[in-house]
Backbone:
């Protein structure tokens, strides 16, 4: 399970100060475990597999919120990564942007926490981004994205092994699908050849030497 390396990653990110700050009291790993349980419990059945909550509020007592304040941004980022990792492990899908947010609840006692995990759909009930090799991000919308060697393609490919109109990313009711357009050398997702594949968060698309990553972000 991903939480095994959770605290070590946090400590590296804050240069060791994290461990000193949280020797006692509510521990971040407790938050991660309860968050994942809430996400598992909140999943629902979809046409292409389970849909998981993508918007999570973590309510902390006033005292704990103050203790976590210095590292709140880092903790939210790492908890979001844990949520994405659980979705990849379990085959969950998201229908909106993935976000974990720490909030203060004065009604809670020190050491207590409350998790609210909900499914919030993005525009059209889907959300997605293509991460290009140079780090640029191409938001996906309601129109198909064409990938190929033609200069008019939305994602042009210079590799001669790519076809002129190689593949297309199409909006579907529960997300986005990569569809091979009868290319000569094929399209892969996570190294596996596909003709049509509903994309999940973190999927890696291969077209010749071009590598694209799909994220629900």
Residues:
């Amino acid at each position: 399970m991903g939480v095994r390396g959770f605290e070590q990653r946090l400590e590296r990110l804050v240069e060791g100060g994290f461990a000193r700050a949280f020797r006692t009291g509510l521990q971040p790993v407790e938050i991660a475990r309860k968050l994942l349980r809430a996400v598992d419990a909140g999943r629902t059945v979809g046409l292409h597999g389970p849909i998981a909550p993508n918007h999570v509020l973590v309510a902390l007592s006033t005292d704990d919120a103050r203790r976590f304040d210095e590292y709140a941004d880092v903790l939210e980022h790492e908890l979001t990564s844990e949520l994405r990792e659980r979705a990849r492990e379990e085959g969950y899908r998201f229908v909106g942007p993935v976000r974990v947010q720490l909030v203060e609840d004065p009604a809670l006692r020190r050491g207590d926490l409350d998790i609210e995990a909900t499914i919030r759909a993005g525009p059209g009930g889907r959300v997605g981004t293509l991460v290009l090799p140079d780090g640029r991000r191409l938001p996906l919308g309601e129109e198909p994205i064409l990938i190929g060697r033609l200069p008019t393609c939305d994602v042009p490919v210079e590799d001669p092994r790519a076809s002129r109109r190689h593949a297309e990313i199409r909006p579907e009711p529960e997300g986005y699908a990569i569809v091979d357009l009868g290319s000569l050398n094929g399209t892969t997702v996570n190294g596996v050849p596909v003709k049509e594949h509903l994309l999940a968060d973190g999927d890696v698309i291969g077209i010749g030497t071009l590598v694209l990553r799909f994220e629900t972000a």
Q: What stands out?
A: The CA atoms of residues 105 and 216 lie 29 Å apart. Residues 72-90 form the longest helix (19 residues). The chain has a mean pLDDT of 86. The helical segments are 6-13, 17-21, 28-42, 62-68, 72-90.
